């Protein structure tokens, strides 16, 4: 027997295995919080800060911030509700805690650490909604939840992406909720429909009036199921679309399966299908209208005065998801952010995010396509099955998002739940007890004490190693020097003399989140008296040079240095000029700095921030020009010196630049 009897008593080994499994899961859950508090220095993408923290921080702390183009009032493509519901709540708590800390200890908590960690802690806490949804889906369909929870909790997507202030993290949570609600509706409707069909058949075969009345009453007493949780599904769907309009791709499969529950049976027909669609749309309308009104007020399209005077037109409303779609349907706009091959999600991003499970999923789907092409329909999952729902929720969103030529790995993060549900059992050596068959759904719920052997096999070793490596890379190494650099300048700006201007150039690094610097609000005019008013002048200047040639950057720095020197001589304005550059470019910078047998710029390394890896300028160990053998020889000749030279490659160097004839 593949499954034990539901009423059988679990043996000692089963109970021991269950306890050890859950201990491992809770250890991984604790690791998720620990890494959030550490915090992870890895910088995955600027959107983590510029679509959340930069949007909210200016309003809460009265500081200069750089609001991204997505929140431009002339053509907003993102709703402001969600940054304020996540980062905004965190900063409200921070403001209160900071006031208490200032009163008791005389120090504020408004440091870059807390500005980053508090929002991440909230997102990290919300990420456990996905754990709960996965657990409940497994319980509904009698599947082993322990293996799946452990695999999910050990994924670097969970440890890194799901704890960041990405809109994709919220999208993952909403997708999980949608799958959980739809899974429950499908299981419940399946029971009711089967019972209804059984009673209808008995009613048809009844030989007497009494029997017919009996079966008629029994069928009439069955609970309603057709519109179960319709409002909740509408609320999740609309909310997800306003968070990220790409949520349409993730919501389509669950809503499609919810609409088709029971179709083909005797008790459910196309009238029920159309009633469900109509009711779902009706429920969506007031929720969408509410979110439109909130955005319209926030971006200044609608005011209370206009409502009071009844001077309202269609131009007073902003629909951010519609603007988002208009923007992304234009390939010229997408060229700005980078164009990618259409199959990038399937070929690169799925294996990168989900490792061996993603590869297994793609191979399994390929087999399904092959079976369908040969007409072996019985080998495919049924539309009423949980396997069908999860397979569609894995493949369909990726296929829909592949239509757009701009494809980043984080865009498909929400498909992790269906992948884990379908294929995590492949990592266990006892696969026979955990494979999902269509017949499982018609059988009795399996015992909660199914044995789950979690011995380390080859696939498990690959899974563990890949996730450890990617957690370290994206959590700590990738652009890992940018946040420490930002904290360094936040401290320097607080400690520097009042009139000193600070200029910072950067190359081959992601954008610095200016909210963490807590720059003074220079856009606001302050009243010093009834007759006089003044405005704070800007004292920090950031020049992000991207991937410009080092020579071009040096020329730009030289020009700015000359300008600062003239201001110092004429206006007595002191200055400091810095250049942040990956350590891999220091040799190139030094080589170009010697021109005509003289030094072009006078510089010194103030500090190096570790670890830091820029994929555009990888350390020499990854460079094709240097073989591993050459590096090994260099290290062996002078072990200590070679080791430190190698470590220095994984850093972000901060240079203080002055004129050749220093003052």
Task: Kindly describe this structure.
The chain has helices at residues 12-37, 47-50, 53-61, 81-104, 112-140, 145-154, 156-159, 167-205, 209-220, 230-243, 247-259, 270-298, 304-308, 320-328, 331-337, 344-373, 386-401, 416-423, 458-477, 482-495, 550-571, 586-593, 628-637, 639-648, and strands at residues 63-64, 501-506, 519-520, 525-527, 533-535, 540-544, 575-582, 594-595, 598-599, 602-609, 652-658. The protein has 24 helices and eleven strands. The protein is globular. Helices cover 56% and strands 7% of the residues. The longest helix is centred in the N-terminal third of the chain and has 39 residues, at 167-205. The protein starts with 11 loop residues before the first helix and ends in a 5-residue tail after the last strand. It has 663 residues and is α+β, with helices and mostly antiparallel strands. The chain has a five-stranded mixed sheet with strand order 6-2-7-11-10, with helices on both faces. Strands 1-3 form a two-stranded antiparallel ribbon. The chain has a two-stranded antiparallel ribbon with strand order 4-5. 35% of the residues are buried. α1 (12-37) packs parallel to α6 (145-154) and α17 (386-401) crosses α18 (416-423).
